[in-house]
Amino acid sequence: MSVGIESIGIKLPSFAIESRKIAKLRGIPEEKATIGLGCHMVGLCMNQETVVDLAVNAAKRAIEQWDGCLNDIGMIVVGTESSLDEARPLSAWVAERLQLNGAVRSYEVKHACYAGTLALRQAVEWKVATQSPKCALVIAVDVCLYEPGHPAEITQGAGAVAMIVGQDKICSIDLRSYPYSEPCFDFWRPTGHAFPIVDSSKSLNAYLKATENCFNALFLDQTDLSFESFKSICFHAPFPKMVFKAFKHLATVFNFSECEHQKFLCDKILPFLTWNKEVGNAYSASLWLSVAQALDQANTGEKIACFSYGSGFGSELFVIERTNGSGFWAEDVKTDLAKRKEISIEEYDNWHKLVNHPPSRQ
Ligand code: CAA
User: Fold this and answer.
1) Shortest CA distance to 105 belongs to which of 92, 87, 96?
2) What's the CATH class of domain 4-350?
3) pLDDT digits (tens, 9 = 90+) for 150-177
C-alpha cells in the first residue's frame, strides 16, 4: 500500500509587517533582519483571528479540493505549539467548526515545531497499521510571537498547512524515516507564559546537530540516494539564514566543493523558501509550507527531502515523491498574499503591547 497526500490546503494570516520595520522599531539595524537573518515579512493574526481560524480555513481548503467528503475522514490530528488549553485538544475546536464527528480519532500533538511532522508521521503509520479505507486530516498550525524587544521578534510569523493523508494522489511518503532527539532546554514556553524562553546559541547548535545526524542516517541507510537525488531539500525554517547555516554545515560534513554547495543551495533550497519569507516563522507549519511550495514545482517522480526540527529537541528526516496532479494549493497562497493587509510600525507596536497574556479561551 502506497500512502501519501491526497489534498493540501494552506491559510496565511490576514495581516503582515516587514521584518525590517520591527527591527527599526526596536533600534536594530534593518540589515540584520534582511541580510543577517534573511527575513522579509512577518505574518500576524490580528482583529480576533486565531490559531483555530488558520487551522479551520486551511482544512476547509484541503477538503474543498479533495474528491472525498467528511465521512471519509477517520482521524483528525493537529500539530501545534499554540494550544488553547491544557486538556482540550486543538483538534476539537477544528472538528467542531468543520462539523466532523463520529468514528473519528481526534487529538493534538506537541513537540515545538516538530509537531506537524509528528502528526503527519502518525497519520501515515495509522493508515498502514489499520489499512483503513478512510483518510486522516493532518493540520500543522502555529502563531509564533516573541516578547517585544526580543532579538527573535523579527522572525515571528504564523500559518497553517492542512494535508489529507490517504493514497499517493499528490505525493507518496516513504515509510522509512530518520529521527534524532536529545532532551535540551534550547527553547521552551512554560505553562501560562505568552512568550517562549530561548537560549539562542543552544538552539542554533541543536538544530545543526539534528541536521547532521538525520542526513547521516538517511544516506547510511539508503545508499542509492545522494543530495543530487532530490528536486528540493526542505528544512524547518525559523528564519531563512538558519537553513543556509544548516546546509553549510552539511556541506562541511559531506565534503562538498564550494561550487557544489552554491549550486545545491541555488537549485534545491532557495526556490522553496519564498512562501516562508512571506510569513516568517510559522513553527509547525514552516517545513510544510516549504514542502508545499516544492510539491507545487515538482514533476512526477521527483523526490523531496523533508527535514523537521522542533526545540526540546526532536527532529526527523524522510523522503516524499511527487506523483500526479496540479498544484492547486498555490492558489491559496496567492489569494492570501493578495488580500492581506500590511500594517504600520505604530499599529504593530500598539497591538503587540496587548499580547502579554495567555491566549483567551473561545
Ligand atoms: N547587517 C548585516 N548582518 C548583521 C547585522 C547588520 N547590521 N547585524 C547582525 N548581523 C548578522 C550577524 O552577523 C549574524 O550573522 P551570522 O549568523 O552569519 O553570524 C546574524 O545577523 C544574527 O545576528 P546575531 O547572531 O547577533 O543574532 P541574535 O543573537 O540576535 O540571535 C536569533 C538571532 C538566533 C534569531 C535569536 O533571535 C533567536 O534565539 N531566535 C529564536 C530561536 C531560533 O530561531 N533558533 C533557531 C533554531 S531552533 C528552531 O528552529 C525552532 C524554532 O523555530 C524557534
Assistant:
1) 92
2) alpha beta
3) 999 999 999 999 999 999 999 999 999 9
